[in-house]
Amino acid sequence: MESWKVGLLFSVTGVTSIIERSQLNGALLAIDQINAKGGVLGKPIEPVLYDPESVVRRYGELAETLIVEDKIGVIFGCYMSSSRKEVLPVVERRNALFFYPTLYEGFEYSPNVIYGGACPNQNSVPLANYLMNAYGKRIHFVGSDYIYPRESNRVMRNVLRQGGGEVTGEVYFDLGAQAHDFSAIIDEIMQVKPDAIFSTVVGQACIEFYRAYHAAGGNGRECPIASLTTNEGEIDAIGSEASAGHITAAPYFRSINSPANRRFLKAYEGKFGSTVDVTSCCEATYSQVHMFARALEETGEIDTESLREALLGASFDAPQGQIKIDPDNNHTYLQSRIAKVDDAGEFIIETKVRRAIKPDPYLVYPAIHDWSFRTLNVAGGGRRNE
Amino acid sequence: MSDPIHDLRDLHALVVHPRDRSADELMQQVNRIGCNFDHMWPVPKSLPEKFDLVFVDVTEQSAQKLKSFIGNNAKPPSVVAIIGYENPSVLDLIFEIGAHSVLMKPVRAAGVLSSMLMARRFQQEQLRFKKDLTKLREKLENVQKVNDAKFILMRHRGITERDAYDLIRKQAMAKRTTTTEIAQSIINAESILSNMGDS
């Protein structure tokens, strides 16, 4: 064998391609860096790419292709939960190792999956706290119609209720929703006048929604759209005018001012020409590829059992700060930050938790007053747009 | 009825299973779900009070032994049977011990949460139905008693059904007791009186 082959299953076309392309770039950058240092045990990592075109069924089929035809045992991929659910039975049946670098709704564990994104206890609770303190207790829910938004809203509703908050409305839209589809809900929001909007609208529809809100006179500085999924990629597509004032909670933002992040961004810019589409999911993918390479260095072979052994409990100095794979549940200890979009369209970090939060994927009702979710204000709000 | 999903992390679970891969998978998943749990093997004689839910390996166990283990408790636990074979005799066994849900060996993480919640929900419903049924039975008996007493009064006094009922109710109020009690007294008196005539 001349190289270590790994499969990459990210859509570069279709409704979730903005975010998945950034994940793909994160993976490719990490692979480049590893190969530039001589690969792993003298052999380079060779990515094998397929484009599922944002079609849910294709993820499962292509995972099968990667494993059976390309004889690949390690796959990075997926953004939406529905696509992960397609890949899951395939990797379990074939005993492959699957890295999922995306936040999701929790309530899953598979020995064949390493989960690199946040689950609700790592981002929803800090966000709910922040919104209620900074804006008020009346929150309107708008989401895409699939499992993640529904479960995410369930958690949010619960946390809000504990803090004396109120959900003023809840509505779901098709993934392919256009700007005009949102006009009725935006009218409703203008009438109800909530203190903030909690949006779990993802993909292209997210961009449509933010723009439609802005066009209808919605002002992020007064009643922001708060999200767990709206990343730098979406903000760039929405445009700085329509996105100013809106809030996102995530483990990573491009504007983090740390040596590790500066190195990461510099390398990213060197490879892709700009850093506009660097997102938390991109950073998670980047970190997962590096963690995989370190585990491979240790085991010397691509074998699910031994790689898993090496990965569980492993930590990594990621651009977001130190992260660690929790051996209890294959999820990842992550940082938690809340940032607001400034006039230039850059996320300015407002608060962060003191240390990485342990993932708790089976937490039914997160408690709002849990000490581990307490946030600190961040002086200076990180790096301004360079 | 309490909400099984809401109360999930307050559960005390017991895993009764030989220490093997299935048991490890199961306990790790129960730990991830966030419940307190203990492990015991072989099947103990009786179940300690604190457990709300029991996972029990029924492979090659006698129904009698399992029933006495599960059943000897004032507060019966929810029972998740772990089965190695899906043949009719094993299925018969899990019916006989009254399991509330089932996990198939080899146990994997997915499905454990659902089986726990199904067992909790099913058992709580069963308990509620049982309670409702007892209440309804009592109520029916009471109605029957009052009816009988009414007919006795109607016969003896030549009054209408409505008047007979009013009489019973007034007596109950005067004596600060229930209409059922009064009805029972009337029925008793009637039976004593009629027996006297016979002898």
Q: What is the CATH architecture assignment of the largest domain in chain B?
A: 3-Layer(aba) Sandwich
CATH superfamily of the largest domain in chain B: Response regulator
Q: For this structure, what is the CATH class of the largest domain in chain B? A: Alpha Beta
- The top-level CATH class of the largest domain in chain A is Alpha Beta
Give a description of the structure.
The complex is a heterodimer of chains A (386) and B (199). With 386 residues, chain A is of the alpha/beta class. In chain A, helix 2 packs parallel to helix 3. With 199 residues, chain B is an alpha/beta fold. Chain B folds into two domains: 103 residues, Rossmann fold; 66 residues, Winged helix-like DNA-binding domain superfamily/Winged helix DNA-binding domain (Arc Repressor Mutant, subunit A), CATH 1.10.10. Helix content of chain B is 56%, strand content 13%. In chain B, strands 2-1-3-4-5 form a five-stranded parallel beta sheet. In chain B, helix 1 links the parallel strand 1 and strand 2.
Secondary structure blueprint with pairings:
The complex is a heterodimer of chains A (386) and B (199).
Chain A (H helix, E strand, L loop, with lengths): L3 E6 L7 H20 L8 E6 L5 H13 L5 E4 L3 H13 L3 E4 L12 E3 L4 H15 L3 E7 L2 H16 L3 E8 L9 H10 L3 E5 L3 H12 L9 E3 L4 H7 L1 H4 L3 E4 L8 H14 L7 H20 L4 H8 L3 E4 L2 E5 L6 E2 L3 E5 L5 E7 L21 E3 L9
Parallel strand pairs in A: 1-2, 1-3, 3-4, 4-5, 6-7, 6-8, 8-9, 9-10
Antiparallel strand pairs in A: 10-14, 11-12, 12-13, 14-15, 15-16
Chain B lengths: L11 E5 L4 H13 L2 E5 L12 E5 L5 H9 L6 E6 L4 H9 L4 E4 L7 H46 L3 H14 L4 H20 L1
Helix pairs in contact in B: 4-5, 4-6, 5-6
Which structural traits does this protein have?
heterodimer; A: alpha/beta; Rossmann fold; 2 domains; 8-stranded mixed sheet; 16 strands; 39% helix; globular; disordered C terminus; B: 199 residues; alpha/beta; Arc Repressor Mutant, subunit A; 5-stranded parallel sheet; 6 helices; 56% helix
